[in-house]
């Protein structure tokens, strides 16, 4: 208790933790109802934990924080307490991970499907067009990828009205936060093991999250499948990182290369082509990368398309169950509906990394502009049903301060997949990522300042 008093004293000197008055209800997960001093104390302990365990990022305002290790670090934004999530939907999402892994692999083998599905997009989207060019070159030389490695993350929201788990998107390249999300789950388990009794919460209800180790294990297994003990694993982290050092490369992991900004000149595209031509295992290969586009997500949701790639009826039904409404813009009926009720849709270009989607009135304006222009520009986008998840009472930690807000959450399930010819070596669900953002924000990534890292509390 000495410790607690000391903590409270320290915290009360800071400007953190202003209380805003929300109606108090007695629900177990109305985190806003907890006593101010108790929350201060949890916040303090969490900040200490984050500092000691590396739940940290470089602070944007400090110049050297991105280049010099150990300089200008700040805790990653996180939720103070884990997000309640129904166990039945949690299990459903975990169960889907190996099915999506397998689907990505099957679709990646159908070069014609990928080229045809993206043919209209190719005409108007320069970035996708360049990826497709690399893909066509590989088809021409009949390039075979015997060993295939996928480190994926399928993202979901729980739609409140239908109480169903709906997929937001499937990431096949640079699936982020495997490292920090493991730490947030550990932090929440630690918090509940200390404060669980007071809060009425049980640390065992936060599922263990081993995503970072499982990703590394998959990379290591791919390396050993390559079977050259002198070869190395190469991480592509930025456009300039093309130095191959004269060493054999067993595995190329792309932590960059998903956005046009990663290709500032022709030399980056030449390097990307060279890597695809090489015998190294690419994570992802150009085909896996293309399977992760929004356009392919939309094509796979059409009737009878999953059946082209999978045999098991039960698996097909399970995958389809999590598909939200997805449409191509050449469907004039849907464009009309979206102009009438834009708030019910999200408009998405073929981009990754957050901040690219169009919402609300901007959907109407963009659609009307496209219709007036009458060009084929519409093929750059897909339309998606807007999902409205249940709002919860969250406590968000950022820059050492907490504040209460109404929030919605997105659950990502990591999947690892490794095969060598006919032998599937790994096909697993591999941890999770929970992101929570203020409910008033449309998009809002963690880095952008709206969302925080979170974990799951099974209900
Ligand atoms: P990215 O590849 O850039 O991450 P996403 O498809 O994941 O693109 O969209 C970014 C964010 O936009 C998501 O994290 C989610 O918050 C929001 N979002 C995307 N699609 C929907 C949707 N159908 N309904 C509600 N929110 C969505
Ligand atoms: Mg994405
Ligand atoms: Mg996303």
Describe the structure in your own words.
The protein is α+β, with helices and mostly antiparallel strands and 459 residues long. The chain folds into 2 domains: 2-324 and 387-458, no CATH class; 325-386, 2-Layer Sandwich (Dna Ligase, domain 1). Helices cover 39% and strands 24% of the residues. It has 15 helices and 18 strands. Strands 3, 5, 6, 14, 15, 16 and 17 form a 7-stranded antiparallel β-sheet that branches. A 4-stranded antiparallel β-sheet has the order 10-13-11-12, with helices on both faces. The longest helix has 22 residues, at 87-108. The chain is globular. The site of one magnesium ion has 3 residues, from strand 6. Homodimer. Keywords: ATP-binding, Glutathione biosynthesis, Ligase, Magnesium, Metal-binding, Nucleotide-binding. It is an enzyme of class 6 (ligase). Pfam families: GSH_synth_ATP, GSH_synthase. GO terms for molecular function: ATP binding; glutathione binding; glutathione synthase activity; magnesium ion binding.
Please, how many domains?
Answer: 2
- Overall pLDDT metric: 92
Number of helices: 15
Alpha-carbon distance between the two ends:
31 Å
Got a strand count? Answer: 18
Largest sheet: 7 strands, antiparallel
Question: Based on helices, strands and strand pairing, what is the structural class?
Answer: alpha+beta
What small molecules does this complex bind?
A: adenosine-5'-diphosphate, magnesium ion
Helix share of residues? 25-40%
Estimated radius of gyration? 23 Å
Question: Which residue ranges are poorly predicted, with pLDDT under 50 across at least 5 consecutive positions?
Answer: 1-15, 17-25, 239-244
Q: Give the amount of beta strand, in percent.
A: 15-25%
Which geometry do the CA atoms define? Answer: globular
Pfam families: GSH_synth_ATP, GSH_synthase
Cofactor: Mg(2+)
Organism: Arachis hypogaea (Peanut)
InterPro entries: Glutathione_synthase, Glutathione_synthase_a-hlx, Glutathione_synthase_C_euk, Glutathione_synthase_N_euk, GSH-S_sub-bd_sf, GSH_synth_subst-bd, PreATP-grasp_dom_sf
């Amino acid at each position: 208790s000495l410790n607690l008093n000391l903590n409270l004293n320290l915290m009360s000197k800071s400007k953190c933790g202003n209380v805003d008055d929300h109606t108090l209800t007695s629900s177990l997960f109305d985190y806003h109802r907890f006593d101010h001093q108790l929350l201060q104390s949890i916040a303090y302990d969490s900040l200490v934990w984050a500092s000691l365990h590396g739940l940290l990022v470089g602070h944007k305002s400090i110049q050297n924080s991105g280049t010099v290790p150990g300089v200008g670090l700040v805790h990653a934004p996180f939720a103070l307490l884990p997000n309640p999530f129904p166990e039945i939907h949690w299990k459903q999402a975990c169960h889907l991970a190996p099915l999506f892994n397998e689907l990505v692999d099957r679709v990646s083998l159908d070069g014609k499907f990928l080229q045809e599905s993206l043919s209209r997009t190719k005409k108007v989207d320069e970035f996708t067009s360049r990826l497709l060019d690399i893909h066509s070159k590989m088809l021409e030389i009949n390039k075979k990828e015997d060993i295939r490695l996928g480190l994926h993350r399928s993202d979901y929201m729980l739609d409140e009205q239908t109480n169903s788990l709906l997929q937001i998107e499937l990431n096949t390249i640079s699936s982020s936060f495997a490292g920090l999300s493991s730490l947030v789950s550990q932090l929440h388990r630690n918090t509940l093991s200390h404060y669980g009794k007071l809060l009425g919460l049980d640390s065992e209800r936060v599922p263990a999250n081993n995503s970072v180790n499982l990703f590394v294990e998959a990379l290591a297994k791919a390396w050993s499948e390559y079977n050259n003990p002198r070869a190395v694993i190469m991480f592509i982290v930025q456009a300039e990182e093309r130095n191959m050092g004269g060493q054999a490369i067993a595995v190329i992991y792309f932590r960059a290369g998903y956005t046009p900004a990663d290709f500032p000149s022709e030399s980056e595209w030449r390097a990307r082509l060279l890597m695809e031509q090489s015998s190294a295992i690419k994570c992802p290969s150009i085909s896996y990368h293309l399977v992760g586009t929004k356009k392919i997500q939309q094509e796979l949701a059409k009737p009878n398309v999953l059946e082209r790639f999978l045999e098991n009826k039960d698996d097909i039904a399970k995958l389809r169950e999590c598909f939200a409404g997805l449409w191509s813009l050449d469907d004039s009926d849907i464009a009309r509906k979206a102009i009438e009720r834009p708030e019910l849709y999200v408009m998405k270009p073929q981009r990754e990394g957050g901040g690219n989607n169009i919402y609300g009135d901007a959907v109407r304006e963009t659609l009307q502009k496209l219709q007036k222009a009458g060009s084929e520009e519409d093929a750059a986008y897909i339309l998606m049903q807007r999902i409205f998840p249940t709002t919860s009472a969250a406590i968000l930690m950022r820059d050492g301060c907490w504040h209460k807000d109404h929030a919605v959450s997105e659950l990502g399930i990591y999947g690892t997949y490794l095969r060598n010819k006919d032998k599937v070596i790994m096909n697993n669900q591999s941890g999770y990522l929970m992101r929570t953002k203020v409910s008033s924000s449309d998009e809002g990534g963690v880095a952008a300042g709206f969302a925080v890292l979170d974990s799951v509390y099974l209900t």
